TrEMBL record, chains A, B:
It comes from the Bacteria. CDD domains: AAT_like, WHTH_GntR. The keyword DNA-binding applies. Keywords: Aminotransferase, DNA-binding, Pyridoxal phosphate, Transcription, Transcription regulation, Transferase. This is HTH-type transcriptional regulatory protein GabR. Residues 15-83 form the HTH gntR-type domain. It comes from Paenibacillus konkukensis. The lineage of its organism: Bacteria, Bacillati, Bacillota, Bacilli, Bacillales. In the C-terminal section; belongs to the class-I pyridoxal-phosphate-dependent aminotransferase family. SMART domains: HTH_GNTR. Coiled coil: none annotated. It holds the Pfam family GntR.
Length: 492, 492
């Protein structure tokens, strides 16, 4: 049978045959090598052709069918069901089996599968030791579990026993979030960040992505250009595209985003610490961004994802604190300062946007999710324990940051160009070599139990591979092991 | 100054002057009595004209400004900023101060403010006793708090201390929800509802509204007609309209929705117990709906919001259990069986729609919200305590149901035409008299501390006022008091 898939080229990249096989076929479909309508071999034929088991082929076909890349026609076989020729922005309405997806649904399906996936470096689980710089985690050993649990248990008693009856007539928490938590956040922002916001402007969200997506849905119409950083958090262009907008990537330099007179009314930016490069936007540039927004009547979304952890230097004022004309939406999150499973973030909105944002959120959650944890956090903040915990973690993370920075600079500066930063929970570098050399290096490190996060981005010098190393959850020994492995493989 | 608002007519309806004032102005704006661009009196002038305090007027102006009905032009005064003439479906892009809302955002703003609001009957807090049939609550006295808290504490210990580190490499929970919970739900649905679904088809959501809205976003395009029940849950047309669709209201009769050859590819329906009338859809009609879906290639969303509580008769199989061709999305929720603040629901999807649904959810929540409560519920179900609790609550709620039904039938059958039901947590009736008589009755009852929920809907006899009485959280004494008050006021 005349059927070729470039399976061999994938085996090195993925830990299991099944994954390699899946990606080989999927990429062939997406790239148009296997055009829409192509009949695929039966699982028996393909197993014989490729040397993998028939069970594996069936599993891969099932995955592709579930994702809508292929469809099984009863009694006739399996066919490619994805049109690579189709222009983006014109999603088909009939591409999910025969469920007619809306244009919005079609755009959802065009995005990559997962935001926080197991990552591009698949860890094969065989190395005796590991150093996982990719994991999305905090230092749980140092978390004040007892104090947190005390708040949790007290709040559980109050909430579960009294809810809907505390005032005898069903007082329900609004979609905007627990009132006490909104007040605590307002106080914290005033004290720690210089942001003067009333609790009514603060809406609690289930992690910052909810704030990003709701903002995009509210402000981005079909074809609207939206300015995003490159490299940047990939959730942002995803939210913009799904809303029907067109993300316009703007490169960052050593001082962060370069302000310009963009033809747009919406900008997503990470001034506190550019994601992922870690550079801090200068006050001068902050002022320029605000001038641009005032001039254009634009909105700036300030994604302040981890500026709590500053290792040295003075913090600059957030855009929101500098904004005298209510053009900034400030997004913050507790997922990096507390426990990753506690999905609490917040948006600080211009007063006139608070109601639209709340109505949009209420469409998905008329009553807030995870209210118990919101109340627990409010109590934890009110007792002063949150800021005590932050101060302690700042010291701990600063030590880890200094240690890992030094190790990476000492051992791997030939391979990576490290970007200096004053803050944050990861260290960023640009790969200095070729893509092929990088792929080989990455794969060898993964085999030795060492992995990290990566991004393909532009900076002022063009498209490059960037890597970043999360360290909060790692011990000194793990960081030492990880860097030693990388150095050994880089030198080999 | 020549400025009239019909404030007097509102004072009886609202508990505070401010609220009456707010609604009086807002309704005048919405109805076009105060057209877009009208200059409103200064707060000083309006206070003098109306006899309310200037502070109250300012507060009302602030609320209207925050919601975008009026805008304050610096140095010039307050102006109406809402165009009542504007055709629905053509939302303005410039109507929120000068923040340009997207068409989606514009549609969000066209919806009513809150889904679970304090309700149309405002309770004035002055009555010595109350009977609140409107409150959204369960019988917390009978909830097994100890058992639930034991699960909660055990799960908190496990989750918070091990997360991201249980397997050494940051295994993150998927947006689809806790795996153990999805398995428990699958088992429960098989056992209790006859629905054969694999855990992969089950996606945990933050209450059923999230499932409704994500489904509408995924399947409804601009101008698409979507069949909805009338009367019905008002969240559904809201989600449809926001997605750009056109809800087509279909009246229900004494057996529920009347099947027809609708020109549509999406139907939202409550077969288990029509909301809010409570009638159960016959097997014959269930089959007709499925035939329609097969014929049209349509999707049916089965909103199964409280069929767990069946007081007599045999349960009919859910549409999802009868569906041989994967055209049904089944939505269920734990908010009525557990604690209202625990916002956990689920959608059972056709396999090919599971991935689009998960990707859409991930756009808002790449990691699930309220994971601790998901894990607590999974443990609670796995230990058998959930079904034990359900059995116990069925007995308790059946007794309350029988008692309230009898009281209402005995005392208020002249005013309401009660709809018989075999299941559920509320009792529904149609008002027999005029709208004015109803408004007077409702307002007098509210003054005596008795309120309920209401809906304006169609049934086969035309547009009517429907009322429904939630009882789970009420004691025998409260129900007795409530019905006695209503009877006294109805007879006066």
């Amino acid at each position: 049978m005349d059927f070729q898939i470039p399976y061999q080229g994938y085996t090195g990249k993925y830990p299991t045959k099944m994954q390699a096989f899946y990606h080989a076929i999927k990429d062939s479909i997406i790239s148009g090598v296997l055009p829409c309508g192509t009949k695929l071999p039966s699982s028996r034929e393909l197993a014989a052709l490729s040397g993998v088991s028939r069970g594996t082929v069936n599993q891969v076909y099932d995955m592709l069918a579930a994702e809508g890349y292929v469809e099984c026609r009863v009694g006739r076989g399996t066919f490619v069901f994805y049109d690579a020729q189709q222009r983006p922005g014109e999603p088909k309405r009939e591409d999910r089996d025969d469920y007619a997806l809306s244009p919005w649904g079609g755009r959802v399906m065009e995005q990559e599968a997962q935001l926080y996936s197991a990552g591009s470096v698949a860890y094969n689980g065989k190395a005796p030791r590991t150093a996982d710089f990719h994991a999305y985690a905090t230092d749980l050993q140092r978390f004040p579990h007892e104090e947190w649990n005390r708040c949790l248990h007290a709040q559980a008693r109050l909430l579960y026993r009294q809810e809907g009856q505390a005032d005898g007539r069903g007082g329900l928490p609004p979609t905007e979030g627990d009132q006490e938590l909104r007040e605590q956040i307002a106080q914290y922002l005033r004290r720690a960040r210089g942001i003067a916001a009333r609790p009514e402007q603060i809406i609690v969200v289930n992690g910052s992505m909810q704030a990003i997506t709701l903002t995009a849905q509210l402000l981005v119409g079909e074809g609207d250009k939206v300015i995003v950083e490159s490299p940047g958090f990939k959730g942002i262009p995803r939210a913009v595209r799904t809303a029907g907008g067109v993300p316009v990537s703007v490169p960052v330099d050593g001082q962060g985003i370069v302000p310009a007179d963009w033809d747009s009314r919406l900008l997503f930016v990470t001034p506190g610490r550019q994601f992922p490069t870690g550079v801090v936007l200068s006050l001068e540039r902050r002022r320029q961004l605000l001038e641009w927004a005032y001039d254009k009547g634009a909105v700036i979304v300030e994604d302040d994802y981890d500026s709590e952890f500053r290792h040295r230097g003075m913090p600059l004022e957030p855009l929101k604190a500098l904004d005298g004309r209510e053009r900034v939406i400030h997004i913050g999150s507790f997922t990096k300062t507390l426990l990753p499973s506690v999905r609490i973030g917040y948006a600080v909105l211009p007063p006139a946007l608070a109601a639209p944002f709340a109505k949009a959120k209420a469409l998905f959650e008329p009553l807030p999710a995870g209210l118990l944890e919101q109340k627990t956090l409010a109590a934890f903040m009110a007792s002063g324990q949150y800021e005590r915990h932050l101060r302690r973690m700042k010291r701990i993370y600063s030590r880890k940051y200094e240690s890992l920075s030094r190790r990476l600079a000492d051992s791997l500066s030939e391979r990576f160009s490290w970007v200096k930063s004053d803050a944050g929970l990861h260290i960023f570098g640009w790969w200095r070599g070729s893509t092929q050399a990088y792929e080989r290096f990455r794969s060898q490190c993964a085999d030795a139990g060492v992995r990290w996060s990566e991004i393909r981005g532009e900076d002022s010098e063009g498209v490059r591979i960037g890597v970043y190393f999360h360290f909060p959850h790692l011990t000194e020994e793990e960081m030492e092991y990880g860097v030693a492995v990388m150095k050994r493989l880089a030198d080999s």
